[in-house]
TrEMBL record:
Topology in the lipid bilayer: Multi-pass membrane protein
Protein name: Olfactory receptor-like protein OLF4
Pfam families registered for this protein in UniProt: 7tm_4
Record domain G-protein coupled receptors family 1 profile: where: 41-290
An example Gene Ontology CC term for this record: membrane
């Protein structure tokens, strides 16, 4: 594939985590376990929601979409890393690298928007309970998910097309376990000013706007809960959003930790290790958070496995 006028590139090398041969089986087993747990856990959430009519509500509609995106999120990066570890190869072809970068951006942005939509759902449920069914109607829920997909697909496609215009030099080593946008831009030997500006603009706008929505929603939720007189009422109101708050905190804190650690250490390997938290660990823990703290999900899962529901 030809890039620019004189640059021919067909593959990149994903350096991964460690050069130590003794650690490769451990890393392979660890990531295989986390991947299987992630896929199996999120599939159970999807099955529980689809099979139980009591869970056909806006909150669980967004949760089902989040579980689907989380499966795609980890499937974008982990299987290739496992294949490279098994075959002792670090190679990823150019088309595969570009495709991986595109789908990684897409899933990360969808996660961001879906968590924001879920925060709005909890805001309406707690702050405007009498109007909840009117406001959070199926049309609005579908529209929120559709808009999330449109914005995410558009931005991911635009970022990817801009990377396709770059020329790459002889250094084809990516110090990561997947093709990340920032790493790809750093490898380019052509002018990356527009790419950098677009990346920073998208991060601030598409990352900051949903986060601002989450913070605003929870500021109103906390204010509303503090206005409840009884302790039991406060606990009941808080319990309806505790799971989502845990997932939001996990996603944003781990994502923020990646960039803080990479900025502090200037080490690509440290950044790769830190990014595992939001690319693998966060999607893996989400089903546990929702199933362990949610009676409705636990009841639906018991019905699936045939356990008597009390």
């Amino acid at each position: 594939m030809e890039l620019g006028n004189d640059t021919h590139i067909s593959k990149f090398l994903l350096l991964g985590f460690s050069e130590e041969p003794a650690l490769r089986p451990l890393i392979f087993g660890l990531f295989l376990s986390m991947y299987l747990i992630t896929v199996f856990g999120n599939l159970l959430i999807l099955l529980a929601i689809s099979s139980d009519s009591h869970l056909h509500t806006p909150m669980y509609f967004f949760l089902a979409n989040l579980s689907f995106v989380d499966i795609c999120f980890t499937s974008t990066t982990v299987p290739k890393m496992l294949l490279n570890a098994q075959t002792q190869s670090k190679v990823i072809n150019y088309a595969g690298c570009i495709s991986q970068m595109y789908f990684f951006l897409l899933c990360a942005e969808l996660d961001d928007f879906l968590l924001s939509a879920m925060a709005y759902d909890r805001f309406v449920a707690i702050c405007h309970p009498l109007h909840y069914t009117v406001i959070m109607n199926p049309q609005l829920c579908g529209l929120l998910v559709l808009v999330s997909w449109i914005i995410s697909v558009t931005n991911s496609l635009l970022q990817t097309l801009m990377v396709l215009q770059l020329s790459f030099c002889t250094d084809m080593e990516i110090p990561h376990f997947f093709c990340e946008l920032n790493q790809m831009i750093q490898l380019a030997c052509s002018d990356t000013f527009l790419n950098d500006m677009m990346m920073y603009f998208a991060t601030v706008l598409l990352g900051g706007a949903p986060l601002a929505g989450v913070l605003y929603s929870y500021s109103k939720i906390v204010s509303s809960i503090c206005g409840i007189s009884s302790a039991q009422g406060k606990y009941r109101a808080f319990s309806t959003c505790a799971s989502h708050l845990s997932v939001v905190s996990l996603f944003y804190c781990t994502g923020l930790g990646v960039y803080l650690s990479s900025a502090a250490t200037q080490s690509s390997h440290s950044s790769a290790t830190a990014s595992v938290m939001y690319t693998v660990v966060s999607p893996m823990l989400n089903p546990f958070i929702y199933s362990l703290r949610n009676r409705d999900i636990k009841r639906a899962l018991k019905r699936i496995v045939g356990v008597p529901v009390t």
